Each structure stands twice: as C-alpha cells, then as structure tokens.
Amino acid sequence: MFKSGFITIVGRPNVGKSTLTNYIMGEKLSIVSNKPQTTRNNIQTILTEEEYQIVFVDTPGIHKPKHKLGEYMVNSAKDSIKDVDLVLFLITPDVTIGRGDRFILESLKNQKAPVFLVVNKVDENTHDKVAETLVNYSKEFEFAEIIPISALKGKNVDTLKELIVKYLPEGPKYYPEDMITDVQEKFVVAEIVREKALKTLRDEVPHGIAVDIIQMKQNDKGMYTIEVDLICEKDSHKGIIIGKNGQSLKKIGETARYEIERFLREKVNLKIWVKVRKEWRDNPLLLKDLGYKKLK
Fold first, then answer.
1. What are the binding residues?
2. Whole-number Å distance between alpha carbons of 14 and 126
3. Which of 27, 40, 64, 229 is the most buried (most CB within 10 A)?
C-alpha cells in the first residue's frame, strides 16, 4: 500500500519552519535566517521513499501585515492550511501563549485534517519550560500528536517523520520520484541571493529587499551566467547594500555564488546590480512582477 499526502507547516515567523523542512529533506531548499519573515512564498518540497511520498508546504510566518507584501505572505500561509492531509503547528517553548500563536490556533479550529503540535528549539530551553508549554497548549486545542524537537540538531525529527507517515492516507505518487521541489531553479537561485543579503546587511534593510533574476543562461561548457537585480526601497539602503568600497555587495556575491554552484553543480558567473524601487512592497504591479501573484 502506497501512502501520500500534503503536509503544511505553519507557525509564527522565525520558529524554524524552513530549518525543519531542510533537515527532513537533507537538502537546503528553503532559505534560513535569524531574521523573522524570511520565507515569502509557499514552497513545496517532495520526499519520496519506497512506500510513501510526502509533499511539505513551507509557508511564510503568520503575522500582522504592515504592507501588501505582508498581506500576500499571510494569505499564502492561511491558504496552505486548506485541503491538506496534515498540519504541523510549529512553536517554540513559552510558558504563555502569545497573540500570534492564539491567532494561528483560531485559524486551525475549523481544520478537518489532524494537527500536530511540534515544539521546536527544545535544546535551547529548560525541561520545565518545555513541559509547561506542552501543558498550556494541550488545554487550548485537541492535537493529534505533540512532539518536542530540535530541527537544527535533528532531535526527535525521525520520530516526527514516522508519525507523519502513520497519519498519511493511501494515495498516488503525485510527483516523479526524482523531483524534490516544485519551484524552478531561478527561484532557488534568487532565494540564495536573498538569504546572503539577509545575513550580510543591517536589520533595517533586509525586509525591504527583493531579488529579480534578469538573466540565467548556460554555455556549451556548462557554466552559468546569472544577472541579478537586488532591489531595495531607499537610496540610503543602496549605499548600505553596496558598502564601503563595495565590500558588502562583494560579500553577498561571493557567498551566494559559492552556494549557487553547489546547488547547480556547475561554475557560475554571478553579476549583481543594486536598484532602488521606492515602496515596492506596497506596489501591486511590482509585487506581481517579482512573483508575488496571490494578492487579495
């Protein structure tokens, strides 16, 4: 009997959704940063084994939106809860349930599929704090399973995977077995560049940046030439991104090129230009051009 299903991972920003997906997949397919609201799109990653296929939907963190990009992100996350076979609600240990998690719990109350409470980052917290978190959340919602994990270190992740398979319905193979993501190479390349910018730049700049792949072509020797616009909202941000003597942009380019070459398994000539598009996060046309197409 072959089992298959769609699993969505929801939670506040920066609770470790992408880290968990990447660990389970054994591949870096979602960008990871210590800054919240890193993931902006629903990204499907596909794990196929001999007896099952799991399609994970890694969603943006659910938060109170401050601009149209934020609205897109929250709508994407909410839409991902509908018509799935299982929901993983990812939290971190906290003795009180915050407003953000209560908002997500309310969104889950009409959910027909089973919901797992997955408590991440247990290695960074005391046993008592983790235990109190489990008790408090179990009073608020009837979870099918409650699993404490460390996505970063892999603690209990295999147990979580076994439980997911247990709850999967019998079903077809939705994707070819060698397919690990539903996004194009260009999307992954853009996300790698954005991740390196997030890790290099100051706190006030990252949420105001986007990456647009202008050109991506491969020559007959296999080498890729990739041209990228790194978009920011303010002229002052452009200076920060470029940095003194171009050092920040150089660091972004070097670290991004290294990881893109690992992903594409070919040499890469990466060119990055910094462009200012004022208030692009509130411009529906620019958002659509950049791939955020589900604005409501």
1. 11-18, 58-62, 120-123
2. 20
3. 40
**DSSP code of 168?**
P
Q: pLDDT tens, 208-263?
A: 788 888 888 889 888 999 999 998 888 888 888 898 899 999 999 999 999 899 88
Residues 285 and 138 in one domain: no
Q: For 152-161, what is each residue's pLDDT tens digit?
A: 899 999 999 9
> Tokens for 241?
């991104």
Distance CA 44, CA 171 (A): 18
259: domain CATH number is: 3.30.300.20
Return the sign of the alpha-carbon dihedral for residues 198, 107, 175, 152.
Answer: positive
Q: For residues 277 and 285, is the Cβ–Cβ distance under 8 A?
A: no
Question: Residue 236: which domain range?
Answer: 185-290
Which residues participate in the annotated binding site for GTP? 11-18, 58-62, 120-123
- CA 262, CA 279: separation in Å to the nearest integer? 34
Residues in the chain: 296
Give how far Cα 141 sits from Cα of 78, 79, 117, 138, 292, Å: 18, 20, 9, 6, 33
Same domain for 272 and 143, yes or no, is: no
- Domain membership of residue 178 (yes or no) is no
Q: From CA 20, how far away is CA 4, in angstroms rounded? A: 19
Per-residue tokens: 159: 């147990």
Question: Which domain CATH number covers 68?
Answer: 3.40.50.300
